[in-house]
User: What shape does this take?
Amino acid sequence: AQASLEQLKSNPKITLQGWGRVEGTLRVGHHPGTNEQVVLSEPLRDWSESRAGDQAATNRRPAMLPHLIYDGNAFRTRTDDQGRFAFNFVPPGPQSIARLVPRGGGSYSHSRLGTVDIKPGKTTAVSFGGTGRTIIGKLKFSGDAKPNFTRGSASLNTPVSKLMEALRQLKNDEERNEFYKTNREAMVHSSKMFQNFPATISPDGSFRVDEALPGKYEFTIQPGVPEGQSQTVTFFTSTREIIVPEAKSNDDDSEVNVGTVEMKEFTIPMPQPTLK
Assistant: This one.
């Protein structure tokens, strides 16, 4: 059980709930997702509700309890030869499940599969995947740009380059803070509609994305931030739109080759907190 101080003041009685269990299957394309690593964690919160200084949002939402910290080994498992997986001793309530996509150097990206509402003392059955396409291609960088593929993140995602360009045009922290304030609703909407499909990139720049849903996307890379350079964020974004077509039939398991994808670099200064 988890309770806030305010709840304990009004009612000091705590009723413990039983652990839940998750049994699921994973598909990649039309095939079982075999030998894939799957993780369970607490669901992500709306980033807009936690922005510093957004008192209106703070007043609207109920008091939130601290996140539970999940053991990374206890809540990580591998699918079997049929794509099946299971988690025991799962806390009741909404939980997020993701597939780990390797990006080299022993690091991974989280490919979110969905949120599951766990009932106390019961087993919840889930099924993920089998509805997207496999996308392949090769990245091309202009000039001397050589991002580190084994750090940061790379994905096929809902277009963000126009937002990145608008942010890059802002000259100081005052303009940037005003931009966030003025465009908050649009940014919240974009955040809720955002789709992200992690990519696996080879040293030669060739990439693969599994389970990408039909739609229009950009390819984006955000390298890891070097120590001492946290005042800027660097992105590489594709210069053209990438279209993921619908499958021709329910049996169409073909790969979609998008060819060479040229990447453009964006460097954006980030607002720094003002100490009072």
